[in-house]
Specification:
Elements lengths: L1 E6 L4 H12 L4 E6 L7 H10 L25 H10 L8 E4 L2 E4 L11
Parallel strand pairs: 1-2
Antiparallel strand pairs: 1-3, 3-4
């Protein structure tokens, strides 16, 4: 099974999720450090739809200026455009496998798609 994680190595939850993936037999892990390789709008829309989330629900407020910029009250298109321009606005980690997509907070949610 292939699993792709959109990862931030500075995030403890992201590191723990990656560890679960790496320790699961039969899982081939692709790591996308999204701060270095930003999302496209299309990919964000697909991840959010597959995870059954809105962009607002995936918006990272802590440690960003998203709240000051009023993004929590913005529409989906504006939030996604801000996330593409500044991927730090996307909460993490997201993991995608053939079984689906999960926003892995807490990290054990990744087991649902393994």
């Amino acid at each position: 099974m292939k699993a792709t994680i959109w990862h931030n190595p500075a995030c403890g939850t992201s590191r723990k999720t990656l560890t679960i993936l790496e320790e699961t037999p039969g899982v081939e892990v692709e790591v996308v450090e999204y701060l270095k390789t930003p999302y496209t709008a299309g990919k964000l829309r697909q991840l959010f739809a597959d995870a059954n989330l809105t962009a607002r629900e995936a918006l990272r407020l802590r440690g960003t200026d998203a709240e000051e910029r009023g993004l929590q009250d913005a529409g989906e298109d504006a939030i996604i455009a801000a996330m593409v321009a500044n991927p730090a606005y996307v909460n993490r980690p997201f993991v995608e496998t053939d079984k689906g997509v999960r926003y892995c907070r807490p990290q054990d949610l990744v087991r649902e798609i393994l």
